[in-house]
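Ligand: adenosine-5'-triphosphate. Inputs:
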Amino acid sequence: MQNGLFLNDAEVTLRDGDRVFRLRVDDLALEPGRAVALTGASGSGKTLLLELLGLLRKPGAGTRYRWAGPDAIDLGGLWALGVRNADLARVRGRMFGFVPQTGGLLPFLSVAENVALPQRLNACEDAGWCRDLIQTLGLSDVAALLPGALSIGQRQRAAIARALAHRPPFVIADEPTAALDSDSADRVLELLLQTARAHGSGVILSSHDLDRIARFGIPRLQLNTRSEAGEIVSRPEACPC
Ligand SMILES: Nc1ncnc2c1ncn2[C@@H]1O[C@H](COP(=O)(O)OP(=O)(O)OP(=O)(O)O)[C@@H](O)[C@H]1O
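Predicted complex:
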């Protein structure tokens, strides 16, 4: 694989008194345009790994993290300039679209304005693409409404449209269907995967729902925890299932 996200020798350590949680990733390669699901028990580090990949969490010393492609970027090196540096925020905003568990839409902007926001922030305005996304995701009738007037499923679809609006190489979705009933969850996941694939964006999602992940044929990385020398250590392992 030549293009993609490559994370090597990565470590993030969380400490709370004597309690230590350590996420370790030896080698992880994520291909553009593909989907992968992070699975594992509650507390196994799925959100932590999503945060690390999405440049929301500073990795430990020795971590190598890069985007390889025509416009290669040393993603790990961006942290050297400080957590709040402008390059880090700019690259994070350009490389990733985020779908939180419950939409995360700005409540004072309409659905259409929420969807257009990443384009404004990344200076890549394209009203036609926003309209296409809103239509594809079945949101045309509610595009002028504020998020508070939408169902949870509609909010999730709006969050997917927003995550894809600036055509990021990867969408990061933390349990995007956890708040939905089974039928809505299927529809939202299908739309997320289809729309991302149509545009060539990869999807990195976390989920507890092994049946649904299997049904959609999404390859899995399972986060497995072990107790090592009094610490909880979690590692992602590719699942043959
Ligand atoms: N300050 C801290 N010190 C030590 N451990 C911590 C600290 N903060 C969080 N943790 C631990 O980090 C681990 C990873 O949490 P994370 O939210 O990534 O898990 P998760 O797999 O996403 O869980 P869930 O499925 O419940 O959302 C948890 O076991 C949590 O207890």
